[in-house]
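Just wondering, does anyone understand what follows?

——
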Amino acid sequence: MYVVGKPLWWALEQLGIVGEDDWSTSATGATAWSEEYVVLTLVEKAADAILLKQRNNLRGPGDALYSMEGFRKEFAQVLGEEEELSAQDLRVLLTFLERDRKALVVDANVGAP
């Protein structure tokens, strides 16, 4: 029930049919769980937009190197949103681009003292 119930409840919540407090604060003691789910088609769309923008901007090998903050600023508006990517959105996108698309390599130790 929990595996099926949480995604179904999240979908109903997005449609405004139920409230956030109804199920997520039940006797299970679960905290807000809506942040645990990713809509894969949206991640794929974002990845496509990022890769297209990068291909159009690439002039040399150095143009493909970004810090986390530099990547966030460069691609913040790629989805047409007013606000920058959140830290969690950035982690999801970078994981998808690295693991599933094999389009980049993330090295958290680069630049670390």
Observations:
- The chain has five helices and no strands.
